[in-house]
């Protein structure tokens, strides 16, 4: 269903106990596998100012969609007319079955994939559950206006989640929950139901700046200020062209995303493994070697990454990222042979990064 101004009042709605309904929604959300739900209003003026300042400094890089939609990103009632409240939910994703993140990062021969991307595409998982939550609400109150989002539209989801009491935005700009850390996905139901709102979460970062200090490419340029152009997640996922040479060494063996700022965060000592089977690592992507993954042709890449978030970057960026990681790995004949096997790749982007990687192992001879 899509909200419309006409959906604001439904027959019999004046008899609904919205306080009790809000409690029920949180219970139903937990029954559907969400760890928490909260309710926020639509006032994001302070967050809009922060967004505009960030965009004004061009810290979003090539993510032009962040500046699109004429301000609707920070104005839910304009994005979906008729919106009165936003039901914000979170779902844990830490894959307890995966190889230890630190172990993989410390092995230059292995490929590190951000923990959120090891299993099924979270967009599909959360969107389906949000739809079920909306259906359960409709069973209780009758037809109502709603629209579900999961990182799929211009929505300031972290700001809304903070207002809904799900956590606070940390110095690394990720949302942190005091009892469960930050390894979770967010989703939203925009609704025309006048539900009571929850108290926003307070910030508990204190004087800690572990996330700032650990960032391999110094992308967190100040507390709560991320220069996406330096962020490894941006470089390996959002950037479609050449990765700046000055940042390639810092990428290490991270071929899809980066988790360092979350791995170091002390609040994640409270995080718990996800119970969702959909987030279980697929195709041993938590433990594969760089050379193994570099061998995939496009057909193999598409087959193995089907249904995962990884597929969105495409085979060319996949090879680009792995070439950089191979350039950062320990020198061996196997590494050299793997890189040389792609030295004549049809893509100029791939060839450029392969030649750079070969140059790391053969200083002064980038045609090795």
Automatic annotation (TrEMBL):
Its EC number is 1.17.99.6. It comes from the Bacteria. GO terms for molecular function: 4 iron, 4 sulfur cluster binding; cobalamin binding; epoxyqueuosine reductase activity; metal ion binding. Pathway: tRNA modification; tRNA-queuosine biosynthesis. Its main location: cytoplasm. It catalyses: epoxyqueuosine(34) in tRNA + AH2 = queuosine(34) in tRNA + A + H2O. Cob(II)alamin binds at residues 73, 151, 175, 186, 233, 258-259. Coiled coil: none annotated. Residues 194-225 form the 4Fe-4S ferredoxin-type domain. The active site is at residue 151. GO terms for biological process: tRNA queuosine(34) biosynthetic process. It is an enzyme of class 1 (oxidoreductase). Pfam families: Fer4_16, QueG_DUF1730. Keywords: 4Fe-4S, Cobalamin, Cobalt, Cytoplasm, Iron, Iron-sulfur, Metal-binding, Oxidoreductase, Queuosine biosynthesis, tRNA processing. Catalyzes the conversion of epoxyqueuosine (oQ) to queuosine (Q), which is a hypermodified base found in the wobble positions of tRNA(Asp), tRNA(Asn), tRNA(His) and tRNA(Tyr). Monomer. This is Epoxyqueuosine reductase. It comes from Thiogranum longum. The lineage of its organism: Bacteria, Pseudomonadati, Pseudomonadota, Gammaproteobacteria, Chromatiales. The gene is queG.
